[in-house]
Structures
1.
Amino acid sequence: MIINKPIDMHLHVRQGDMLKKVLPETTSQFAGAVIMPNTIPPITTLEGVLKYKEEIQKVSGENFTPLMDVFLQDFTEEEIRALKDNIFAMKFYPDGITTNSESGINSIEDIYPTLELLAKYNIPLSIHGETNGSMLNREREFAPTYEKLARDLPNLTIMMEHISTKELAELATKYDNLKATVTLHHLLLTLDDLCGGALNVHYFCKPTVKLATDRDALQELVKSGHKNVMFGSDSAPHPLKNKFKGAAGIFSAPVILPALAEFFEGDESKLQRFISDNAINNFNLNVVDKSVELVEEEWVAPRMVGEVVPMFAGKRFNWRVK
Ligand code: NCD
Ligand code: ZN
């Protein structure tokens, strides 16, 4: 299979030594990726965006396009104008909902003026949509907020990130301006994989993987090829020692193309749509012209990348990236 311009629409690459170790796992498989801004400190200024982009490009070289996100705050029009040509989207984290999101938003109403400006300047809004409710309900409880935003701001393109439930799989095809990204782990895993037997800390993330009915609805949605639906890995590396302190995040980057090739049973056109075409068409994306070849040969996923244990560590796949 040859995949043209694969794009990861949701990626955490961290900073410093960790970035140097994990980013090559993505650049060997992707032409571009949307880079999440929940660094320490978070990316909130033009200066921060440019500095982080430079750090990424020093490691990736020219043959990879980082699409930069900014951590959404109550920005002025002047701030947004300064940012707009250097970013792909703004990322909305409800306050404290996940890793490094302590400076997130408390009330959506407060942020409406900023959201209207995003619509005015054609900047997409990407959302980690969870309430602070009970774990399995957090995402479905956020659904009315997604719908309200989609209706109130018809000129704003909104991305529901890493959708994990049947309800959101249904919502993903209801509005033209409400897109969705789906991860590898929500597509393949359930709570039973996380804690049905021995606890597997490497499958712990936010939003948590859910029930088989949710996973099946996501699989059906992705296989339908709907234009609103795009691949975003949410690959989120944490050093092994932090995973045992409860850090949320699954490091899926090393196994993405072999696992998706298996999921789509070698159907190149379906994979192409999910991992590239829909994103390019939805956002008019410009990434380096890079194709990645997958061959039907046995490949074993790495057991460690630096200090991080990847998803499916040590598992055998029938496809490998050439
Ligand atoms: C992400 C991280 O570690 O940065 N963790 C996660 O569980 N997905 C943050 C996020 O995207 O929620
Ligand atoms: Zn994420």
2.
Amino acid sequence: MGDDVRIDPWSSSQSTDYQRIIDQFGLQQFEHGSIEQPTHLHRRGIVFAHRDFQNIGNAQRNSLPHGVLTGLMPSGQMHLGHSMVVEQVRWFQQQGADVSIAVADLESQATRGIPLSKGYEVAIEEYIRNYAALGLDPDKTQVYFQSKRAVVQRLGFQLGKRTNLSEFESIYGFGGETNLAHVQAPMVQVGDILHPQLEEYGGLRPIVVPVGVDQDPHLRLTRGLASKSNWFNVKQVNRGVLIGLSLQDDNADVFGMQANGRIDKQKVSDVFAMVDQKLTELGFSDIESIPKQGTIQVFSATTRDLHSIRMVLLSIERRLGGMGLLAPSSTYHHFAVGLTGDKMSSSSPKSTIFLNDPIEVIQKKIMKAYSGGQPTIEEHRRLGGNPETDVAYQYLMYFFEQDDSHLEEIHTSYSSGQLLAGELKQLCADKATEWMKDLKEKRDETTHLVEQFIRHD
Ligand code: TRP
């Protein structure tokens, strides 16, 4: 399979072959038709894929507890591309999610050489100030630092025993020369993603992680580790759903496995009785328990019941002393193109609009951006421009133009040759100016809230 895509979260170049990524890694297509008050990122297909989003949609519709967690690298300036995640977090928050934001100061120290004290400063000045300005609610948002939240590191460490170097080789392409910081950083990120489910951080509930697709390897790792730690396996079979006990070091006693190899039948039947009762409470009556095989089959359960069955089993696991971790959900957005037509990246200022750039700089950057227009006006009128490769159009679509019908008009008149490339850039620069002025104003108005975002550390 020589042409497989490998996603490297630390590389500055990423595949944008999104369909192939979906197919190869088994992502699900994001359907925005079924969600409430979709943002422009949803409506325009910029948020394009997910894993297990249905758990979150379900929690939103039924006002059940759920959380959103994401993270930021405090290593450079915050740019427009980063604002997409904040926009999504804001939307999740409005739909009822609690919000946790990890400042990946350990990761950026280990992988980019940023001292923790510098990471703190960058996180506040570049990121948190803009997060506040972009409309996150300080009362419902916890920003924390990886270096200061011991439980995050502990959880990563504990789950380390459920993976090994071969798995890291296959997920990340690591080999003998790999620096161990690159092994530890993902484990801390696992801790980030799973810790909101711990009792002291809100307890068992679905957690969604909105990220760029470059972060999917971490989600695959985390989801795998959560499942491997579970004391009950749940899978759909021909007839209903099959639950199996997953025997592990830390549950051998609870599941009646005695040191002498004998089985304590009473313990096994206690566990089965608990499961039985909870499934009955969920409304299932056709349950077959086979304690000897360690299985329970629920014949009438369908795909739609998987989540509630999982939740019940995880809470039983917790009562019995296990961690009871639900695999996180995730959503993925497309990357915005850089000004030069390549990737937008903090390390190349020419390709990137930073949120703290002065307005005149931004206007200049946009007027010089890569264009999808034709070389001459005559040709442009005849052949039309290409909005798909035109940076000004793309930025209107990703960031600055909220009105879908206006965007559509621009699309039509640009592709038909009516609107010239320079005119389109001017339109974009004007809209960007408005957007940036507004952001700057909000930044000034919300400066006093920054403290509140980080009060939990
Ligand atoms: N690794 C992420 C990045 O490079 C930052 C991060 C740390 C993160 N922990 C996280 C992202 C948890 C999402 C969820 O940007």
3.
Amino acid sequence: MVQIGFDVGGSKIAAGVVNERHKILARKEIPFPTGTSYKIVAEIMAVMGEELLKSAKLDLSSLQSIGISVPGDIDEAGGTVLNAHNLQFHNVPLQKEMKDYFKEIPVFLSNDANAAALAELYAGAFRGVKTAVLLTLGTGVGGGLILDGKLFNGGQGHGVELGHMMLSHNGSICSCGNKGCVETLCSASWLIREGRKAVIEYPNSLIFLKAEGSIEKINARLVIDCARDGDAVAMDIFTRYVDQLSSAIASCANLLDPEVIALGGGVSRAGEFLFAPLRKQVEEKSYFHVPYRIVPAELGNDAGIIGAAMLINNK
Ligand code: BMX
Ligand code: ZN
């Protein structure tokens, strides 16, 4: 039997047919149809699902379940996307809508970072682990927890939002409306913002040179690469970033004393240049001065698809 996992995000919908060994047999990706109603989005997803089965040379009789991962506040039990502002989904009964197309096939919904943590549990950095924390460092900061060897979906089914723990009491405004959340200080967006700000004051920095004088070309990877190349302006940004992120991770460590902390999202691709100073600072800052295993998440862009496909196993 196979599952279909959908990873629905603000810029694209990625989907795949996933087998029992957590391998993606066929995949498909389309831009997110911004501005269309959720009913149209569900219809598009249903077509994607049928096409995927066809390309995997399977039919509905092989399909055991459908899983959907969505950024934002999800009511898993009710099958509703309560709030996903970048999809403009508010109180959207996505589960029911999909079931109308796939009838008796069960459909599961989950927050994107929760699904990614589940994927790491089955097929990545959390295999065989009982207590783990995943932080995805992207446009926002997503979070997922593994407790007692299972994905923890919050005490009241709202999941966890580690990106919205507060790190700075009077910090800048977050996408959630509060101030100083982890997301405002540890996302790739923070690195981009700081990089773009810095070149106005320091037009001679390597950041501006590498961006060929175009502010829009400054992304998180470029800032990190410039720091790696020894540019002082980029290094200052990167040093502050590591300081902020290590505080967020140390707080998670103090709360849970986890066996593994994995970092996903674009920023995590910085490799040891990021992980080495991060481990050192987390060890210094955490209450239990132990060398926590802080590792890159293993599934990269596939985490959303695989995690969504694995939701059936988490019931
Ligand atoms: C936001 C929040 C989280 C999500 C995280 C990562 C919304 C729409 N999203 O903090 O639910 O897990 O972003 O999302 O409220 P990404 O877009 O960076 O992948
Ligand atoms: Zn927030």
